[in-house]
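Our consortium's second objective concerns turning raw sequence data into structural hypotheses that experimental partners can test. To show how far this objective has progressed, the report includes one record in full. It was chosen at random from the queue rather than selected for favorable results. The single chain below, 116 residues long, was entered without modification.
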Amino acid sequence: MYGVVLWSDDARNRAVVWCDDHGDLAFYRRTGGARAPMPFAAGDLIQFDLKEAAEMRIVSRPRVVERESYPTLTHDLKQAGAAMGALEETCRAPEGCVEARDNVVSLSAHRCAEVA
């Protein structure tokens, strides 16, 4: 599968990827110890194997296809979310909910509204 890295944090050994099938986001956790560099950054186009575990999509065996392929995607998504009011709302449900912090945009309220 292909995807674009939306967010990565070298200190936390994690990344979030928007997949080309437009399904749920996929998560990456770096292995190999804290000294291994993060293999990609936000905006990079990657190819990877996708695994599903515990209702999560997990990135494995990532390979960079093109660095900085989509350098403004994260910014563009934040602007689109702000236009929808996603940044103004806080998450009220205690389980399965991520609040807007550490550059993570909470879209759960909008997703729940779409399903209802």
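The partners drew two points from this record. The radius of gyration is 15 Å. Residues 89-94, 96-103, 109-116 have pLDDT under 50 and may be disordered. Both points have been shared with the crystallography group to help prioritize constructs.
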